[in-house]
Amino acid sequence: HSQADVIYTRLPQAAAVFSLLGTPTIFEVHDFPQGLAGKALIRFFLRGRGAQRLVVITRALANDLRAAFGAQVVEPFALITPDGVDLERFVSLPYPPEARQALGLIERFTVGYTGHLYPGRGVELILELASRLPEVTFLLAGGEPTQVARLRELTGQRQISNLILTGFIPNAELPRFVPNAELPLYQAACDVLLMPYQEQVAASSGGDIARYLSPMKLFEYLACGRVILASNLPVLQEILNPSNSILLPPEDSNAWLNAIQNGLQFPERTHALAVQAQIDARQYTWTARVEKIFGNAQKADQQTS
């Protein structure tokens, strides 16, 4: 590490040490630091001669960090760069009927959700919608085996027959290190994609991440070019707006029901949303993200030298 030109890390301990040693350090932060130790490490990083860039995934997080740690947490030193997407995975996707045929799904209006099934992701809302809309297929792709098993038990108890649970999506014939290689095809099979985050959202660690969400599924949904129904949480509205999605109160199941029914009955009314979503996805590629981070880092370094 002593020969590195720049250290890029998400570990607060590493960011603090290398910054104090004077090594140029870029620190990426996805959540507000917890406890006295977490806050102390942020302060050590900011005070060190090596602190070159603080990369933050949402404006909400940047605002809270600035309130807690002072005026240094502003651009160009602090850079807001949300998560992104590999657009190459979403090139030439089939239309929903063709994608459904490829996956062996019934040919009818399909509403999808991809990702984890932790508390706060809206699974209960999806179950309610599925029970109230038996003429619609609900496709849920993802989830830990224990979560999927629990959900299968619930669908059986409630006699819900129109909800498909795939579990983790296989990688098909692509190399094993390529995650979720088939996921875009499952998303393409949907007419509508759901992002029903609740006011409190559990991470894999169990903590609440609702305030600072930057879910990768958001950018995948945009790139897929389908109608997005999302909770109207402030942090999601940093990316989503009425021109590229339909934003709904997370607790109002009737609003979600009506939005799905409108999409089913009047697809031409929501076509423009899907088109704009795909256009907006172009600014959130991983390549653009890297160029923004390192390009701004060089500018900041020139300004401080």
Put the structure in a nutshell.
The protein is α/β, with parallel strands linked by helices and 305 residues long.
What's the structural blueprint in terms of helices and strands?
Blueprint: E1 7-9, H1 12-21, E2 25-29, H2 35-47, E3 51-56, H3 59-69, E4 78-80, H4 96-103, E5 110-114, H5 123-132, E6 137-141, H6 145-157, E7 163-167, H7 183-188, E8 192-195, H8 216-224, E9 227-231, E10 246-248, H9 253-265, H10 267-281, H11 286-304
Parallel strand pairs: 1-2, 2-3, 3-4, 5-6, 5-8, 6-7, 8-9, 9-10
Helix pairs in contact: 1-2, 8-10, 9-10
What distinguishing features does this structure have?
single chain; 305 residues; alpha/beta; six-stranded parallel sheet; four-stranded parallel sheet; 11 helices; 10 strands; elongated
Architecture overview:
The protein is an alpha/beta fold. It contains 11 helices and 10 strands. It has helices at 12-21, 35-47, 59-69, 96-103, 123-132, 145-157, 183-188, 216-224, 253-265, 267-281, 286-304, and strands at 7-9, 25-29, 51-56, 78-80, 110-114, 137-141, 163-167, 192-195, 227-231, 246-248. The strands form 2 sheets. It has a 6-stranded parallel beta sheet, with helices on both faces. Strands 1-2-3-4 form a 4-stranded parallel beta sheet, with helices on both faces. Helix 1 links the parallel strand 1 and strand 2 (25-29). Helix 1 runs parallel beside helix 2 (35-47), helix 8 (216-224) crosses helix 10 and helix 9 crosses helix 10 (267-281). The protein is elongated, with a radius of gyration of 21 Å.
